[in-house]
Fold this protein.
Amino acid sequence: MNRFNLSEWAISHRAFTGFVLVLLVAGGIFAYFMLEQREDPKFTFRVMVVKTLYPGATALEVEEQVTDRLEKKLQELPHLDYLRSYSKPGESVIFVTVKDAIPAKEVPNLWYLVRKKISDIAYTLPPGVLGPFYNDEFGDTYSLLYAVSGKDFSYAELKDYADSVRQQLLHVPDVEKADLLGVQDEKVYIEFSDKKISQMGLDPLAIMAALQAQNALKPAGTVFATGRDLPIRLTGTFHTLEDMAQLTVQVAGRTLHIDDFATVRRAYTDPAEFKMRFNGKNALGLGITMTRQGDVLALGAALAKTLTEVQENLPIGLDVEPVANQARVVNTAIGEFMRTFFEALAAVLVVSFLSLGWRAGSVVALTVPLVLAGTLLCLLLGGLELHRISLGALILALGLLVDDAMIAVEMMVRKLDEGWDKLNAATFAYTATAFPMLTGTLITVAGFLPVGLARSSSGEYTVAIFQVVGIALMLSWLGAVMFTPYLGMWLLKPSRHNATSHTFDSRFYQGLRHSVRLCLAHRNKVMAATAVLFALGIFTLSQLPQQFFPLSNRAELMVDVWLPEGSSIAHTEAAALRIEQVLAADKDIASYATYVGGGSPRFFLLIVQQLANANLAEIVVMTKDNAARERVKQRLQDLFANDLPEVRGRVMRLNVGPPVDYPVVFRVLGEDPSVLRNIAEKVAQILRANPHTVAVNDDWQERIPVLQLHIDQDKARALGVSNASVADTLEAHYRGLRVGQYRDGNKLTDIVWRAEPNLRTAAPDLADISIRTAQGKTVPLAQLAQIETQFEDGIRWRRDRFPAISVRADVVDGMLAPDVSAQLLTELEALKNQLPNGYRIETGGALEDAQLAQASILIWIPLVIVVTWLLLMLQLHNLSRTFLVFMTAPLGIIGAAFALKLFNAPFGFVALLGLIALAGMIMRNSVILVDQIEQDELAGLDTGTAIVESTVRRFRPILLTAAAAILAMIPLSRNDFFGPQAIAIMGGLTIATVLTLYFLPALYAAWFKVPRSKTGGGL
């Protein structure tokens, strides 16, 4: 019974095959325009932030009374990776990180468990604690970010206009959220002089109570009249600031107005908590978050159109300007990728036309868009998107998906040259090589399997490589056995040569036979030489610079400006303004956005977002191009080094891949903070001594000065003064106490009772603050307490409940962080051996993340081996031949290592993926060659002759497919992300192809003990 032949079926059902072909092309075009487009793949941040406030507590008290209690409970969380936290005066922040292996869909349930567990112990927290507050949207990224600014507009006016713009943008399709950033809330301040109040005999508590009672909004009952209910309304609440200033207060028989002893004014929150500036102007940010199903290019176009209409109604001088525009970035990136793609496509087609001729090359050329169209359609149906990784994977697949079509066409052409008719020639490839091709294709796909299965942030980020390449390669096999024969029937012509002409009798093929016979004759030397090359490849690979993920090619620079811990936000803003003056005069800069009191909102998925810190200003500098970016970076580094010694400045390019804060990190963990600081300082000295590190610092920073009040408790009790009353008085004097809310239309504005500005800024005046006694009199604070300046921790970091100091550094340009960290590990070894019991130094940063990412890949190598062996056994049905094919898998290391070294490319996570995939490509060619040898042996040839003749016959398709893959990698080798992977594949496949044609025959002959006399070794 004849076996089913898919190629024959496709040709015999031409109408159906043609219909499917047209449908596939139309579906691919439709899919291209419908696929979601974004800069980076969707990425689940497995981090939740738990923030708790404990006003008045020191960093140590916050750690002991709040942070430790919460962390102890959170350690019960299933799938917890680690807890990282910091405690500052009055504030606790815990970062809950779950394991990367947890599927993204299960993460929300874990965040629910976090809330539940903390709510179970909330009652155990000390009185006065506010929160906890949760942020499980830590990874939300603004697709577009705008600045609303105007030179002559107040913050209140900016907010009103920004609110109006926000409301209109919310109606744009695919807008999920629109947030206002940097809003300066208004407050009504009632500012007093405590000396004046004391002289007038006023009681501040009575005044605050009067303010609260007068402005209270409470139900006054309802008169239930016959047939109608009549609610009772009271007048007298504050409608204007004048009402507040004229409020009467009865004190000791006197009637006074508030403005007799205090000033009522409306102002913004002072001190501010977070401010935004754009191009040197005060601004409010408007961040747009896209729905998960949205297309950022369509969103950008829709927002631009809406903003054009909105700005026509805005007053002159009010600007809505883009700060970050992911739509523009994606459009540029896709344009670059498409150029790279067409360059790779051109390279593949050139190989096809030059090697196969016009007609046969046309068959391959037409098969490529069919496979790509099918791939795009599958991406759409599978809910995948076009982004940095999937587009790069398409280019990567381009060099591989023509292999099957080339093999099928080459065999069809050969059979036509031998005098076969078109139908038999077109269907012969399916009979002879379809299943070896399928096995080879599946082995190639299996080479990418670790990427698809990797349970890590890096794996989630790059999983599209496996998805896209897998889909493309499987469709390429289907296209080779269905559409390639169908197209060949139309385009190829029967050969005019005599059917008895011998295709492989040319001078070239005679020379090839001779060289293969020499390898078989000197098989031991060939295998020894290959072993030496392999050893050199392994050694070269170990000497290559290590890299986790490459830098982004975006033109932005992130500039962090850190002042000493405890610095005021006003001081931080002043430092930022000095830097802005420099930026404004730099012609290489297109724009800059400044964030004072915290970091930039997440406008790029992969940035490390800084949380609120009064001593931090972060500036996002948009340069005109990448060359300008490097010039600006150098100038800013010089500025920090020479002109701003009082700040710790850091200038960073954006990174690709899972976010890493500092590239070089060493964590010191233990129980005693004083011992930790001593060890951390020694670690920092070792880092500073290394010539490849810069900006060495630690995350505990400096100890901050505080004013310690030693209250004479005996005297205080005698006067009826308590610690609480002193604290309330001082809090009201300096920070202010909220005594109600002023209702102005739909706005609620806090009313704050505090001292006049000049009384809140002078530390020496603290001793003169009046403290009210139980007898209604006042005494200066100096009579009750001694004031002493002391130093305490401004911030205390922990990791898994252990105090932890992270010593961090950047690396000099030209060096890669894993290499520098590896050097430092050797230098730190002596210090590690001297550590007291219970103290340890851990490696963090890029080296730790790279090791975790590589481990998540390498753990699946055994599965790849098993799958590969299974596929080989299914095809070859012979353990020995399977072993021979498998032995060729690591040959790619030789050329890959030499190529990476030659082009000075780093070996990192992406290059590792290239090496693993390379093994599948090599075995794909090997299995076809070994299968051909077996077929020739079954046809009656002796083993030696079968080895030589099979190598000769398979030479052309092996060489053509390798050349197509290698040339397709050339454009991709210039890509920032895929460059190392492309270089590894180019170099590895080049050398491995040669070894497949010479080493594999020699190994086959040695394994099966083929006599040298049978191989023509005497030649």
In short: DSSP finds 29 helices and 32 strands in the chain. Residues 552 and 654 are 5 Å apart (CA to CA). The longest strand covers residues 281-290.
